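Lab meeting prep.
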Amino acid sequence: MVVIVALALGLALAIQAWLIKPYQIPSESMEPTLDVGQRVLVNRFVYHLHDPAIGDIVVFHPPAGADNGTECGVQPKPGEPCPQPTKGESEQNFIKRIVALPGDELSIRNGHPVVNGVEKSDESYVIPCGSAAACNMPRAIEIPPDHYFMMGDNRGASDDSRFWGPVPRDWIIGEAFATYWPPDRIGTL
């Protein structure tokens, strides 16, 4: 009996460490897609099989300084998103949507990413950005190799890559693929 319990506990811990891990949504930055307190399951293995893609909702470690506000790795030019993260990795976990890939050219118009000259204005899942400076960043940056640009769906209330830069692939924990709490929000993402 003790062996069975130990094996079950070991299997559960292994699944959480390498395959699927639960996370709780800490802020309103992903509303209306994900609400504060909602719980998601994250596939930690999927990016061993294929590269992250635009539109994926991912859990990741942001650059150091991102959890204390906006800290870019370099001084951005006026009207430019943060082009480079700080060198250190934060211990915090963030959840955002990937909006640009390595090598993409990116600017921001009305809160929407403009990737390689094409505005992604068909984002029906976002809360409009408003008139803040972060809603319009017309000066384009190039996403560095092996980095991904993240934005929250609540564009006017999201602390994201616009402020602290693209995220290295190694800092991506996995892709959120389902919600399991509260019961009325159970489903796939």
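Slide two material, second protein:
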Amino acid sequence: MLQIENLQVAYGKVQALWGVSLSIGAGEIVALVGANGAGKTSMLKTISGLIRPVSGTIIFEGTHLEQATPAQIVRRGLIHVPEGRKLFPEMTVLDNLLLGGYSSSLNQRGQRLEEVFSVFPALKSRKKQIAGTLSGGEQQMVAIGRGLMAAPKLLMLDEPSLGLAPFLVEEMFQVVEKVNQLGVTVLLVEQNTEHALSVAHKGFVLESGRVALSGSGKELLAEPAVRKAYLGL
């Protein structure tokens, strides 16, 4: 579904990614893990067209995306839910969600809204509530729900558990699995390495802008270097 080869990304003279290659198959949950500054968010921003790569290829369902605009990429079904939620805090939950489906017909938006409410039942009763008054966990639900409104084929989630209370972290990773069960491929960027690799079909470990390790989620959880560096074991 998504094939990335030898991706080089820089901010001016500062190199963020050095020849990164990875692939994501349809229906997979793929975890991208690593320390702060490893290049995880830069990877997502480049895939979604917010940053232009210096070199390398990004191919999604057979189409090159290196020069595509973010709007073109969204229309192809590749959706990015950024770190920090980025909601419109003074708008209602419903209006935030509807913005995700802005390019769809009214019928399609209605159908997708019901799908979002099936994943996040709590949002249905709060749809008229101002988004900025929600809890952190509820705001994250809205952010993911807005992404689902765009009918993603591949949903990229950047740190969905960041800032959540511990009891909500488990719930958030259950949501990731539920979204995947709807037929949506997921690329998950997370500092919560153990949880991310536990739900992932496969994973990639980024270190200083390079892929240091790759394998199935279970293989990486058992890898001594991962356990020592990211799990404290």
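Talking points for slide two:
Strands lie at 2-11, 14-24, 29-33, 55-60, 63-64, 78-81, 154-158, 185-190, 202-207, 210-216.
The chain has two domains: 1-77+152-233, 84-151.
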